Amino acid sequence: MHQEGQLSAGSLVRRWFRMLLGLMIGSVTGMAGLAAAAADVGVVRLTEYELGRIARFDQAVHTNPLTRRGCRRYLAVRWLVGALGAGVIYMLVFWYGVAVSMVTAWLLGGDWGFIEEDDRVSLGLILLVTVPGVLVIFVTTVGVAGVAALERRLATALLGTSQQTLLRQRVAELTSTRAEVIEAIDDERRRIERDLHDGVQQRLVALGMLIGRAKRARSEGHMHALLQQAHDTASEAIDELREVATRVYPSVLDHSGLAAALEALAERASVRVDIRNELTESPGKALEAVIYFVASEAVTNAAKHADPSVVEISVWSSGSEVAVRVQDDGVGGADRSGSGLSGLARRVKAVDGALDVLSPVGGPTVISARLPCA
Fold it and tell me: What's the CA gap between 342 and 339, in Å, rounded?
């Protein structure tokens, strides 16, 4: 517990010194920014530098896309904060030097520049100077953090969006995403019900009818033929039921992971599927499921509508994101607003990802998704 407190205190001290260094640089660039704003030259580039400095020495500021007018206005005001920072730093250094000099002179019994050479520095003079000096040092030490916070607030007010506004936007986005996920789940349920009703159920009805006809058959040969048809129909019903179950959720994804699930997808596909999986570790079950369904839906759509000769699935990690890309050499013209791709977009958005569909007439069709991972 004591060690955690020391680490926390050390982190605060390091952050304070970073802010101090950032204000020292900002006090110099403030006047340069004022000159740039007056001449209207290089204001966007200098603003980008200032935002990078704030992010490096303090913390990042959320800004809207920079405009020349907004950057000029920001630089025209920011020099005041730079001047305030310079004043705080000057007071801090000056009074710290005074306090150290006075205490050193008293301890060593020497002279100090403010008194005659033949006089000694008295303890009363020490207290008279150092006590207010210590108070000023404390105020300016806190002032460093205050000026840094003022600099962030100024950049946010003139260039960006406040944390409260971002929070409201995020809440609205999550509310919308939740509604879209519920809608996607309902669409998937209707799709499963339709597949069961139009596929498996019809085959089971046909199976029952074949068995009934076999029971009423008058010849043994006719009965065996009907039973063979019933056997084939049962096999087809089992395969179709397995396909529906796989579209709901592939059990191999839990048992063997994403690589095995993609291999099973390629084996079941009616077209050639090439897989390039560069993931060295699992991104998590939730993201694995989204990656699988992106690939599965893309392969299914390509096989049904695009008549491709090959479908390529690529999965890789890019920084804090996982990317999946499915490309086919079919006829193109995929409709992003269709039920399959729109449901897939909602599924991707539910994990804060982004889906992109590029499908010009004549092909190729490229479906890609970027998914943030923890």
Answer: 5
